[in-house]
Amino acid sequence: MALVDDPMIDEAGFRMSEATAGDFFALLKPRVMSLVVFTAFVGMVAAPVTINPLIAMVAILAIAIGAGASGALNMWYDADIDAVMSRTASRPVPSGRILPGEALSFGLVLSVLSVMTLGVLVNWLSAALLAFTIFFYAVVYTMWLKRSTPQNIVIGGAAGAIPPVIGWAAVTGTVSLESLVLFLIIFLWTPPHFWALALFKSDDYAKAGIPMMPVIAGQASTRRQIFAYALILAPIGVLPWVLGFTTAFYGVASLALGIGFVWYAWKVLRMTDDDRAMKPAKALFAYSLLYLFAIFAIYLADCVVGRALAIGGA
C-alpha cells in the first residue's frame, strides 16, 4: 500500500518518470550539439558544389539529432560517474529526473532516426559516417576509452572531429583532403581543450575514477602535453590557406588565433602544482572555445565572401 501512496510509483509498483521536455533536451547535450552542427555546416558550405536548401536543412537536422543521440547514450552509460562529479551531478539521469531506461531508449531511437533520415533523404556515405560517429562516441569512447586510458580524449576526439567531414559528404557524396584538414584541426584541438578542463577539475575526475591525464600522469606532464599540442595545432590551423583552400584573410586570422593558443598554453606550462586558483588553465579552456568557433567562423566567411567575389568578377 505504501508504494501506491507514493505519487511517483504506479499501481504496478513501477517508478514513474519526473522528466520534462527540458530534461530530455538537456539529455541531448545542446552545447556540444551546437558545435557539431556549426562545424558540419561549415563543411557543407566549404564543399565545391551546392545542394537543394531543403536537403541541406534535412542534413543539418539529421546531424543534430545524431549528435544529440550520442549525448543521450553517453549520459545513460555515465550516470554512475556523473553522480559523483560536481560538474555533472545535476544532469537529468544522475539527478533522477530521467530514468536510465528512458535515456537509453531515447538515444537509440534518435540514433536510428538520424542515420536513416540522412541515408534515405541525403546519401548513404554521410549516413555511414554519422553512424560511425555515434558508435565511436557512445561505445568506443564512453564505454571503453573514457574509463580505461588517459589517452581517452586523444583517441575519442575523433568522434567530435568528424562533423565537417559528414557535412562535406552530405553535399558531395565524397570525402576530400579539405574536409580531412578540418577534421584534423578539431582532432588536435580536443586534447588541450579537455586537458585544460581536467587540470582544474582533476579532483572530480579522481573521485569518479576516470583516468584523465592529470590524474594518471600528473599536472606537470599534462601541462607539457598541452603545450606540445598547441605547438602542433597552431600551424595546422593555417594549413587550409597553405593548401590553397582559403584566401590570405583566413591565413592571417588563423595564424593570429594560433599564436594566441600557444601563448595561453605557455602560461599553463609555467604553472606550478601549487597554483590552486588554476587561472591559466581556466583561461586556456575559455580561449580554446573561442579559438575553435573563430577558426570555423572565419573559414565560413572566407568561403562565402570568396565565392561572392568570384561570381562578381565572372
TrEMBL record:
<dbReference type="GO" id="GO:0005886">
    <property type="term" value="C:plasma membrane"/>
</dbReference>
<feature type="transmembrane region" description="Helical">
    <location>
        <begin position="226"/>
        <end position="243"/>
    </location>
</feature>
<feature type="transmembrane region" description="Helical">
    <location>
        <begin position="55"/>
        <end position="77"/>
    </location>
</feature>
<feature type="transmembrane region" description="Helical">
    <location>
        <begin position="177"/>
        <end position="200"/>
    </location>
</feature>
<dbReference type="GO" id="GO:0008495">
    <property type="term" value="F:protoheme IX farnesyltransferase activity"/>
</dbReference>
<comment type="pathway">
    <text>Porphyrin-containing compound metabolism; heme O biosynthesis; heme O from protoheme: step 1/1.</text>
</comment>
<dbReference type="InterPro" id="IPR030470">
    <property type="entry name" value="UbiA_prenylTrfase_CS"/>
</dbReference>
<feature type="transmembrane region" description="Helical">
    <location>
        <begin position="32"/>
        <end position="49"/>
    </location>
</feature>
<feature type="transmembrane region" description="Helical">
    <location>
        <begin position="98"/>
        <end position="118"/>
    </location>
</feature>
<keyword id="KW-0472">Membrane</keyword>
<feature type="transmembrane region" description="Helical">
    <location>
        <begin position="281"/>
        <end position="301"/>
    </location>
</feature>
<protein>
    <recommendedName>
        <fullName>Protoheme IX farnesyltransferase</fullName>
        <ecNumber>2.5.1.141</ecNumber>
    </recommendedName>
</protein>
<dbReference type="InterPro" id="IPR044878">
    <property type="entry name" value="UbiA_sf"/>
</dbReference>
<comment type="similarity">
    <text>Belongs to the UbiA prenyltransferase family. Protoheme IX farnesyltransferase subfamily.</text>
</comment>
<keyword id="KW-1133">Transmembrane helix</keyword>
<feature type="transmembrane region" description="Helical">
    <location>
        <begin position="152"/>
        <end position="171"/>
    </location>
</feature>
<feature type="transmembrane region" description="Helical">
    <location>
        <begin position="124"/>
        <end position="145"/>
    </location>
</feature>
<keyword id="KW-0350">Heme biosynthesis</keyword>
<keyword id="KW-1003">Cell membrane</keyword>
<feature type="transmembrane region" description="Helical">
    <location>
        <begin position="249"/>
        <end position="269"/>
    </location>
</feature>
<keyword id="KW-0812">Transmembrane</keyword>
<dbReference type="InterPro" id="IPR000537">
    <property type="entry name" value="UbiA_prenyltransferase"/>
</dbReference>
<keyword id="KW-0808">Transferase</keyword>
<comment type="function">
    <text>Converts heme B (protoheme IX) to heme O by substitution of the vinyl group on carbon 2 of heme B porphyrin ring with a hydroxyethyl farnesyl side group.</text>
</comment>
<dbReference type="GO" id="GO:0048034">
    <property type="term" value="P:heme O biosynthetic process"/>
</dbReference>
<dbReference type="InterPro" id="IPR006369">
    <property type="entry name" value="Protohaem_IX_farnesylTrfase"/>
</dbReference>
<dbReference type="Pfam" id="PF01040">
    <property type="entry name" value="UbiA"/>
</dbReference>
